[in-house]
Design goal:
- The protein has 367 residues and is an alpha/beta fold.
- The chain has a single domain, classed as Alpha-Beta Barrel (TIM Barrel), CATH 3.20.20.
- It has 12 helices and 8 strands.
- The strands form 2 sheets. The chain has a 6-stranded parallel beta sheet with strand order 5-4-3-2-1-8.
- α4 links the parallel β4 and β5.
- α3 runs parallel beside α4 and α7 runs parallel beside α8.
- The radius of gyration is 19 Å and the shape is globular.
- The chain starts with 6 loop residues before the first strand and ends in a 6-residue tail after the last helix.
Length: 367
Amino acid sequence: MDLGLHFWIGLQPTLDLSDHDRRLLERLRPAGVVLFRGNFQRDASYEEWTARLRRLLGDAREAIGRERILVGIDHEGGTVHRPPPPITHYSFAKEWAHQAGDVGKAMGVELRSLGINVDFAPVVDIHSNPDNPVIGPRSFGTTPEAVSAAAGDFLRGLQSTGVLGCPKHFPGHGDAAVDSHHAMPVLDLAPETLRERELAPYRALLTDTRLVMTAHILFPRLDDRPATLSEPILRGLLRDEIGFTGAVVTDDIGMGAVSKLFDDPDAAPRTLRAGGDLILICDYWTETERALAMAAHLEDALRRGTLDETVLEASRSRVETLLSEAPQHEVEILPEEVFAHHATLAPTRTAAAVSTRAAQSVSVAER
């Protein structure tokens, strides 16, 4: 059984496929790869760096040995931006919430031209806590209504170009006061508040999205495990209550909030039992070869009966459906006038004023 299909690997920061990544992709055969800043040749011309990217993705696809793969990226605007110029660098989402559909479409056109078929966006966290160190201006707004409307416009614009979106971070990161990249946020929210506020955008986007990303946050009134590993949250709220039938990807499991938890041999099986499908593991935060041990843990859990085969089959079916629905794109050069037009649609990172507080709030995301 191809258990590697339940993993999504963030590449090492190399311009060409590293020997490490080639071996890992060949052995694991994951669902796909994720690109970071280090995978783009920033000191080269547009023609040169796209040619290098084309070769990198071609080699990754060959190593995986599957015609259809997921090629993901975090691309939100603000400090969450990986590719070099001339790719349009928009400001934070809060600066163009009223233009989210146009920006989503523009981002999709540009990402598609880079061979990317999944954008880990939009952020649908409600910016309810001004002391939040990691969401802040990445959010479209401070109310469920504002976020739902802008995120819906963004998602539809993005997906009209053949790039799938991925609303994040379920069930909600906006009220946190701790950055989950480094430690575990704990939100003592009443379930009623969570349902009325944090879950509203997911209900609104239910019919438009095929993929949702989890949050590494502990909600003690719901479970003693973080959302990424929580059956009451993922299966109970997202799947049973909201009715989401698509694929669920974890936020990067190398992040400080959960990295040690995933040393537990039961962590990968628990992810699938909880209602998750894809384990995201990126070189930026951890050693990606951990995925091989996790795949072995899935196999062992099946053999011992601690992971029900029907649960695995349902999860595998969701991943295969996602792969079948994710368009496969070639890297191509876009005309200058496309970028010129896109730059007029909304504030760009270079044109918009960014406060020190806003820059600090998401500085960790620029990688």
